[in-house]
UniProtKB/TrEMBL annotation:
GO terms for cellular component: cytoplasm. Residues 1-51 are annotated as: Disordered. Residues 22-36 have a biased composition (Basic and acidic residues). Residues 123-313 form the Metallo-beta-lactamase domain. Pfam families: Lactamase_B_2 (PF12706). It comes from Actinacidiphila yanglinensis. SUPFAM superfamilies: Metallo-hydrolase/oxidoreductase (SSF56281). This is L-ascorbate metabolism protein UlaG, beta-lactamase superfamily. InterPro entries: Metallo-B-lactamas, RibonucZ/Hydroxyglut_hydro.
Amino acid sequence: MSDQRARVLAAPGAVDGPADTPRTDRPRTDRPRTTDVPEPSAGPRNWPASFVDRLSDPLPMPGVRDIVRLVRECAVRPPSHSLKDVPLLPVEPGPLPSAGRATVSVTWAGHASWVVRIGGLTVLTDPVWSRRIPGTPRRITPVGVPWKALPPIDAVVISHNHYDHLDAPTVKRLPRSTPCYVPAGLGEWFRRRGFTRVAELDWWEGTWLRGVRFDFVPAHHWSRRTLTDTCRSLWGGWVLTDSDGHRVYFAGDTGYGAYFAEIARVHPGIDLALLPIGAYTPRWMLRPVHTDPEEAVQAFLDLGAAAMAPMHWATFLLSGEPPLEPLTRLRAAWSAAGLPRGALWDLPIGASRVLAG
């Protein structure tokens, strides 16, 4: 184990055991790596009725005892005294960087929504521009990029179908000819809404759009949108690679586990990893599906990426940690690992960073 990894694992709240010894999850090895699929089209593919066999851990669905425990621990929402820190959350909207074909830049719109400029394309990740999503209090910070300020959208990538990552009112704003890259089993949701260029991908599959490659990679998570569709569609992250070899990894929603090292093996040389750091308390329930800040730093090390930009915090109050805690713990874990400060792109909502161009 490297000294950097050892320092992260020794930090408060770090994962139990070394990164080289995952809990119960195992990377799938029964599929070819980086299999090509056609560019987005209207044609559906045949998928299994369920992807429950892809789960790394049992579903984090609380039973009666768990619900009682949540109420007793007051763990569903942040402590009331910590809500005074909401106005301190970093929000600094700015103009989008000018983008040419050689430009690679990211702009954080909030939560898991990014405006990624790569290879001459403008790509949205998990676009949620709504003020409120089902089952969740309204967002506590504004969207970092007004919809009218967006350039034409060349593509959208979706990590999974949970409401805070797949927002129907936002998707409805997109032209129906927008190429949509979605997990296996989720294509019909888009086709029913009139989208004509939909690519459904399994883990380790990839496709191309105007010189940019879109690869779908595993995540430690799950899917459900209604009471009857649990794990009927897949979940995962995306690796975007331009013709010059610049590579951006968008993790979507994920817990910590062995897949990060596997992604690094299949897609080496990641320049920027967009990793979630929030919605992690209580750990006894959320650890399988959401990384905490220390685990996010460990995932960054496993990925071998050059830089990290945190996400999935400061937007919706989804769990019990205080609003500012994810960033505070992330910076502490980053420092404890001896990582260079310039490689941590802890952007305010609405801010941008240019990787190349």
